[in-house]
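Case study.
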Amino acid sequence: MEAVTENLGLFGRGYLLSLQLCLWGLAGSLLLGTLVAACRVSPVPPLRAFGTAWVGVVRNCPLTVVLFAFAFGLPEVGVNGSYWWLGIAALVVYTSAFVCEALRSGINAVPAGQAEAARAIGLTFTQSLRSVVLPQAFRSSVPPVGSVLIAMIKNSAVVGAFGVGRDLFSVGNSLTSAQGYAALPVLTGVAVGYLLLTLPAGGALAAVERKVAIAR
Amino acid sequence: MPARTRRRTTGAALAVALTAALGLAACGDDGSDEAVVAPADNPSFAAGTTMARLAEAGSVKVGTKFDQPGFGLQGLDDKPAGFDVEIAKLVAAELGIEADSIEWVETPSAVREESIERGTVDLVVATYTINDKRKERISFAGPYYVAGQQLMVRSEDTAITGPDALKANPAAKVCSVTGSTPAETIKTYLASPSQLVLFDVYDKCADALRTKQVDVVTTDNVILLGFVDESKGAFKLAGEQFTEEPYGIGVKKGDTQFCEFVNGVLAKAGSSGAYEKAWTSTAGEVEGAQTPTLPTAAPCA
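After joint prediction, the assembly is written out as follows.
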């Protein structure tokens, strides 16, 4: 186990970097996912088509393909950027499709009468979505969105391999290959690191769920 | 755009041609797997040694890289080809083992020590830099080659003249491979850790250099020469080589007899010209590569 104890600093920095990656991914994918979900339920056909196409394309591409498109495809057509932001953009785009669909299940769970009542008192589509439908939809979609976000934390390990480096998984990789540490203890350390990301995330999600639960 | 597309196509075609050339170099004219040196007839070894065991079995398990052009690159026939592969064939030949009877095992950097310790392989010839940390777990025969780290930049780049120019150009991104020795070494030359970009293979670094995502690619010069050759003038080497990476042959820790035997094979190949032939037919095919002279072997311990 000295492979981990001797390199606690490295693991710590890797953990913090992965945490940053996940926080950006969380904020970005929740925002983008909500926007895409709003498009998918909107009364405007082009927006609906855009939302459907977005989910259809992004959800059906493997994460590595989306990452390749961002890290190697965009520079190919002259769009250069740091691998850090390209990687986060890819993670956000990929996760947004899943957030959108989880959120849409929540929107579908809001009784139609709610939207109809909102329309009856004269709210526009955007107003009824923002003040009536989405708040209720968020409440009932905490568990599925939570699963998507935890999957995203684990997916962040793949982002590290696309030029980002120094994240938790890459730290494990360089310890085993360049410095000759045995693989098993190092990978155990990496696994513990990811558990320290996902378990608190799961706890936080459970707390949010309790907080926003509504009795029907 | 058309120019860029064309360049990519020629690059790909060249890569295919290079792979084919390397593959052919490993095979003889008749297409069979022919080593540089014919296997020895019934060599005799003291009972109980690794040599006796392998000669008796008539086969040997060799760990090598499957993704290193010029050293160990898996061809379309599934067999690796390259300088490391030829060195392993020389050792096998002295044990009386045909090249066809060698069992090739892919050993990426991360699993080399483990593979030797667990006996998954009998020896490892895999661009394996000799260092003290590794010596704690295994023993090294050789070195059979001394590589050196160097920088590769785009041809129009005049700012990066060597590793010492990296601190002066903190915006320049340097690309290497996760977990490799060059990636560790270059860290001391950087202004900040964020200057370093890491991928799993050098192909991606070369691609990133072409699309201006990074400005420097660094690793052992023989690997870089392959990319310079492939780039048709788009890339060049910058500055002199600034490290010495002695490549050794990994064997089980403390197997001094086997280690000395391997050193003997190397010395013999060095004087017979088989060593030089192994080089010129593989890694030495790249333009600008210099034929090495066999380094003096370190004592086995």
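Observations recorded in class. Chain A touches chain B through 22 residues (CB under 8 Å). The mean pLDDT of chain A is 91. We will return to this complex in the next lecture.
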